[in-house]
Amino acid sequence: xxxxxxKDWDLLAVGALEGDQAAGLLDHVDTCxxxxxxxxxxxxxxxxxxxxxxxFDRDHDDLRDQLMAALPEATPVSCExxxxxxxxxxxxxxxxxxxxxxxxxxxxxxxxxxCILIVVLLxxxxxxxxxxxxxxxxxxxxxxIVCQVTKTLNMQLEVDPExxxxxxxxxxxxxxxxxxxxxxxxxxxxxxxxxxxVRRDEYENDTAVSTWYLPPDGxxxxxxHRHGTYETFDPDDHAGMPDELVDEVAAKTPDIHFMALPDxxxxxxxxxxxxxxxxxxxxxxxxxxGRDVLGFEIAGEKVGFGPPWTDYAxxxxxxxxxxxxxxxxxxxxFHFVKHVAAMSxxxxxxxxxxxxxxxxxxxxxxxxxxxxxxxxxxxxxEIATExxxxxxxxxxxxxxxxxxxxxxxxGRYPTSLTGANVGYEVAMLxxxxxxxQLVAERTGRTDMELHSMDELSDIxxxxxxxxxxxxxxxxxxxxxxxxPGDAESVLIRWRLDERHVRVxxxxxxxxxxxxxx
Amino acid sequence: xxxxxxxxxxGVLNGDRSAFAELYDRRARLIRAICYDECRSHxxxxxxxxxxxxxxxxxxxxxxxPDRFAxxxxxxxxxxxxxxxRSRRRERHGLAEFAERKRQSEAWSEPHExxxxxxxxxxxxxxxxxxxxxxxTDKERLALHAYYLQELNVDEARSVLGLSRSGFYRVLSSAxxxxxxxxxxxxxxx
Lengths: 517, 190
What we know:
The complex is a heterodimer of chains A (517) and B (190).
Chain A: H1 6-13, H2 19-31, H3 33-53, H4 60-70, H5 83-86, E1 89-90, H6 91-95, H7 104-109, H8 111-117, H9 131-135, E2 144-159, H10 168-173, E3 181-193, E4 197-204, E5 207-214, E6 220-224, E7 229-233, H11 243-252, H12 265-277, E8 281-288, E9 291-299, E10 317-323, E11 329-340, E12 348-363, E13 381-382, E14 390-391, H13 396-410, H14 419-441, H15 463-470, E15 476-477, E16 490-495, E17 500-505, E18 510-514
Parallel strand pairs in A: 7-13
Antiparallel strand pairs in A: 1-14, 2-3, 2-12, 3-4, 4-5, 5-6, 6-7, 8-9, 9-10, 10-11, 11-12, 15-16, 16-17, 17-18
Helix pairs in contact in A: 1-3, 2-3, 8-14
Chain B: H1 5-13, H2 17-39, H3 42-59, H4 69-92, H5 98-108, H6 111-121, H7 127-131, H8 138-148, H9 154-161, H10 165-188
Helix pairs in contact in B: 1-2, 2-3, 2-4, 3-4, 8-9, 8-10, 9-10
């Protein structure tokens, strides 16, 4: 037997492993003296920690009695829980933005761009050490962080001449040049304060597009300057999301995630430290904004641009540039490339590149409290937030239903079922539906609220595939090559047990197949 | 634990104060550890913990999912800690200066300054382990606290962090690994 690694011994020593896993390791200990030493060391460390934590038990009973005596006489009043909503499953919550649903409307408007952004939320960082890990530790206590975020979206697209969009889509959804190429540049100013919350100002061509406010507690608010509207959102509202996905998203979401409006500067610093610690190579020294900086390159998979949440592309990568003297963050750059598959009735296909740059960092600048207090301009209309996308809980039937619906809308199956790709394709569908509405109405409206995500509710069942991955059932999907209606080809398969595989064919028929001996 | 947090929360909302005492018994140690990370003083940590629980009681009706009480309480305690940090900063004046901050931070981490309290509170055998805690990320530290202060129960601990079992294993083992490295460094460079 190959010797287990140190992490296994740690988990065994602290009592976190059970059953066969623990028994297998203990058997190995009996036969391997080196591992026995590791296990014993891990056990000693565990016992030291148990002792260490006893300190937090001191005076517990007295403190409890003091607290109970200090509690207000009045019983806390319950706000009526929305039990029915909790049982539902909102696609947009995790597809468009795992932490908040506030990008959903933007995604409808600028579907490809916004949805690509969700991968920025899904960074997966590996541990490790670097020279800068310690150097930036002292920044952890920053009270405020200000930075600029520049998002550049380049879409090298072919316009499908057969698509019946009547020229509306390019004009209304994005600016497209004669070659069908789109470039969108958005600038954001992000303010994070440990005690006041978060504010994000978004600009396009020097024109304010939106302002987001998120206080330390309670609901956030978005002002949409372009359309004179505002809406509230609850960043902690995961109601309706399956627990497994909440857990997985939490596990995959790093301590730094700008789209989700981090509410504590220390999380940003933690994230930076992990990024530099997990770097694949150093990029050498450069001068940025007059400062000597050292760059690190992090491979795409490590920053979340890989399975199971996104499809791997070797062009996907991140750069982190830190001040060579202080370890302060100077610039972060994320490159993400995505191939866009054709969709029936929608005139875009091609390659999309999104580059997101975070720079002009300022730490501990005094930020006036007034900046974080939302002021709704006169005449702004409130948008109801009740148009959540409620979909069924993901299971096999839901998955089949979702594939059927997707095919109805797109004329094909999704090219892959990774979280980001599904989010991307759903956003494309939303864009297509919206384009069709615009064509149908022939109003020429630019109203972002004109959308119909409800039509996409059945598609939430696609998340069943991710649950299979999380459950270790080794699902495989071939939607990039299998045509709808193909009864002979396997579209999806996953392991039920050691001897049986569940299969869904191209015609969406399902059956259990015994593995050959 | 025989009754889950959600039922205890419901009990409190129905006027059963003893249910809140039970919630305190379950979670106060964890909250003290989180506060201690911030203030490095057991007395202050105890005070901040009391404040966090008091707020939790007052806001309990706003808790959307009673079963996630522990994670919600951790959020409140972090907010209480942030406010404490801010008030302390106002008292000290001038800490906004970056260089000063660095100097303060380094001074804060001087072993001899912390050792007096640590040795008072904890057996000397555990001191190095404790001193190494700041080398962990927030998530790793919380995982360690949650595990050791909640009966070494993986499911209890992971619910605090909102992680899957495998996700929790990753964070916990990473915490152990980082602690080991930190301790090794201390042994090489005492």
